[in-house]
Design brief:
The chain has 504 residues and is mainly beta. It contains 6 helices and 22 strands. The longest helix has 13 residues. The chain starts with 9 loop residues before the first strand and ends with a strand.
Length: 504
């Protein structure tokens, strides 16, 4: 085989194990991004309104604006991850900067003092729901090698299809197995052709039992996971104010998604007599798509001091497509020398699939102390066990949905924020707590976060700065199957946000 005959092969694969519970949570959990003022109160804006990112909590908030305005916000995202694996801890830091919010509102006032409907508003806003830029590295001496991953998929798989046929390129065989037999046999093919595993009887095409060529009591593993991309949301909002006490609003939300995950697992330190002395196994997943949701809300001004808010955010319906590619290399003497031709140019394209994230209910209360400041409290409820992959008629999706309903649970989120004004200067602070979506509270832990911010009002414009921090623990599996010991991850995010608002 010569490199000048390599070309990109693209096939539509059938039922695979590419989509799982991780996909559902990736799009169900939203971070507290938005304007610097919104972040300064940790998102506790459901009963306040008057902020473009507050529309994400309660769409009635647009009717609270007293005048038209435009706001833009930029955020520096600082990730700090501590990953511990078999007693060894590695720290990884990553910085990225994004324009995470931009939008405006147009307010139409009714100057007839006897009219019941006092105000109408139209708002358009872009928010970065999630910035997927992240990275962590972990290493340790494990008693479970990647050979267990390939054995888990190979056991029970007939040997015959795992051979490269006469006149067939190894890339063609890899893609053909994926499209005709599925993800599991395709992984068995990789392990066999790389010489990591072997059949018990190589002369029997009906052989279904496999053994490892890697010998070890413990093996040194290094694992890198790097992600990038975004889940952005464009909101079209309409709001209105009835008399002086009731604001109502509705929003249509349009999402755009790009997500890329790269993983690299390297192994060395096998026994001296092992046929395999090193293995490198890389995976690259790219997801693209869009989504839609709507939201409804009200804010009631009970008196000069107390405001109450309630809102409903519909399920978000995602339409997604995955591209998946792999590469593997080892020094096994029985390996196929052409295995390196399977690389990131050889792409598996999966059929479009859908993710439905559960709806969310929000209840809010705020105390407004005239021009001196405010105190706000938000509570939201979302039942993650109602999330699902679609089409539900797909047997593999039905299996994942069963796992979702049994392993995930309802999530309560609490936010509290306050603002104190000294003439043109505003001092802000907030705290949020979000329960783990997992019933075991171990795979992903509870989230704690706080924020502090400052703003200065120039009259016709306002400048805001906020520092916010959130932290949660979790466990990360190095592979879907075969490697049962996860790396424990402490993930902290420090955000520095600057926002500028112009009043019209």
């Amino acid at each position: 085989m010569k490199r000048n005959i390599i070309f990109i092969l693209v096939l539509i694969c059938g039922t695979v194990n590419a989509q799982n519970i991780e996909d559902v949570l990736r799009y169900s959990i939203e971070n507290t991004n938005g304007t610097a003022r919104f972040q300064g109160l940790s998102g506790a804006f459901g009963a306040l309104g008057g902020d473009l990112s507050a529309l994400n909590i309660n769409p009635a908030g647009s009717a609270v604006f007293n005048n038209s305005q435009f706001t833009m916000t930029g955020t520096n995202y600082n990730r700090n991850n501590d990953a511990t694996y078999f007693g060894r801890t590695n720290n990884t830091r990553l910085n990225s900067f994004k324009i995470n919010q931009a939008g405006g509102v147009i307010v139409f006032k009714n100057y007839d003092k006897n009219a019941d409907w006092r105000k109408y508003s139209l708002a358009f806003n872009y928010d970065l729901v999630n910035n997927f830029s992240n990275q962590f590295f972990t290493s340790g001496n494990s008693n479970e090698g990647i050979d267990n991953y390939f054995l888990a998929y190979a056991q029970g798989q007939p040997l015959g299809p795992l051979f490269v046929q006469d006149g067939e390129l190894i890339e063609e065989a890899y893609l053909d197995i994926g499209s005709s037999l599925g993800f599991g046999p395709q992984q068995a093919f990789l392990g066999f052709q790389a010489g990591v595993i072997d059949p018990v009887d190589i002369d029997d095409d009906n052989n279904t039992q496999y053994i490892s060529n890697a010998e070890y009591n413990s093996v040194n593993q290094e694992f890198l996971q790097s992600t990038r991309g975004y889940n952005s949301k464009f909101t079209m909002n309409f709001g209105t104010q009835f008399k002086d006490f009731l604001s109502m609003g509705a929003s249509l939300n349009f999402h755009s998604i790009y997500y890329e995950k790269y993983t690299q697992l390297s192994e060395s330190g096998f026994d001296t007599g092992s046929e395999v002395q090193f293995i490198n196994f890389d995976n690259l997943l790219a997801t693209r798509g869009n989504a839609f949701s709507f939201s409804l809300g009200v804010i009631a001004k009970l008196n000069k001091l107390i405001r109450m808010g309630a809102s409903y955010q519909s399920p978000t319906w995602y339409d997604l497509r995955d591209d998946f590619s792999q590469r593997i290399n080892s020094d096994s003497p029985v390996r196929n020398s052409d295995i390196t031709f399977i690389d990131f140019n050889i792409v598996n394209l999966f059929p479009n699939y859908k993710v439905k994230t559960p709806g969310k209910f929000n209840g809010s209360m705020a105390l407004v102390f005239g021009p001196n400041g405010l105190l706000s409290f938000d509570y939201s409820y979302q039942d993650m066990s109602n999330a699902e992959l679609r089409p539900t008629s797909d047997s593999s999706f039905a299996t994942v949905n069963s796992v979702i309903s049994s392993e995930l649970r309802s999530v309560s989120t609490f936010r509290v924020g306050g603002e104190y004004r000294i003439k043109q200067l505003s001092l802000r602070g907030g705290y949020r707590y979000e329960q783990s979506p997992y019933a075991n509270r171990i795979t992903v832990g509870d989230l704690n976060g706080f924020s502090a911010g400052i703003g200065y009002n120039f009259g016709g414009s306002r400048l805001d700065f906020t520092y916010s921090r959130s932290e949660r623990d979790g466990n990360v599996q190095l592979a879907d199957v075969g490697l049962t010991t996860p790396a424990s991850l402490n993930a902290a995010m420090n955000n520095y946000s600057f926002g500028y608002t112009i009043n019209f």
